[in-house]
Amino acid sequence: QVQLVESGGGLVQAGGSLRLSCVASGRIFRINAMGWHRQAPGKQRELVATITGGGMTNYADSVKGRFTISRDNAKNTVYLQMNSLKPEDTSAYYCNADVRGSASPLSNDYWGQGTQVTVSS
Fold first, then answer.
1. Phi and psi (nearest 5°) for 89?
2. Which residues pair with 33 in a beta bridge?
3. pLDDT tens-digit profile of 103-117?
4. Which of 28, 36, 39, 118 has the most other CB atoms within 10 Å of its CB?
5. CB neighbourhood size of 72 (10 A)
6. SS3 call for 71
7. Phi, psi at residue 46, to the nearest 5°?
8. Of 53, 48, 37, 64, which is closest to residue 99 (Cα–Cα)?
9. pLDDT tens string 54-76
10. Which pairing describes strands 10-13 and 57-59: parallel, antiparallel, or unpaired?
11. CA 71 to CA 67: how far, in whole Å?
């Protein structure tokens, strides 16, 4: 089994910054793409950013130029640096990872439990 655990959420004023982390653990052979999604109350979950195993990144238009996704493959960790935060960024943030386990030739998609980010105006 594989577990993803997020950390780094909290309360911040508009214009401030937060850095989210997500660590994958368990029987991991290889982690392919990793990403961050968010879901506000009453809204659908939306993609924030993704990063491939080779480091290629993709961002939602709403966060381009403000958020940066990165990863440390040695630590099985993905980060989301969030700058110039806005009240509309308030959401629960979830990381996900496409992981090939050590006991299987197939990859599966795993999700963390989420971390809350609240931006006050």
1. -80, -5
2. none
3. 888 899 999 999 999
4. 36
5. 11
6. strand
7. -130, 150
8. 53
9. 999 999 999 999 999 999 999 99
10. unpaired
11. 14
Please give the Cα distance from 116 to 104 (Å, whole number): 33
- List Cβ neighbours of 84 (8 Å cut-off, separation of 6 or more): 15, 17, 66
Residue 87 phi/psi, 5-degree rounding, is: -55, -30
Segment (H or E) for 53: none
- 101, 26 in Cβ contact below 8 A? yes
The alpha carbon dihedral of 25, 30, 34, 40 has a sign of negative
Model confidence at 101: pLDDT above 90 = no
Instruction: Please check whether residue 39 is in contact with residue 94, taking contact to mean a CB–CB distance below 8 angstroms.
Output: yes
- Over residues 17-52, the pLDDT tens digits come to 999 999 999 999 999 999 999 999 999 999 999 999
Residue linked to tokens 């439990």: 113
State the residue for tokens 């496409």. 98
Residue 20 contacts residue 79 (beta carbons within 8 Å): yes
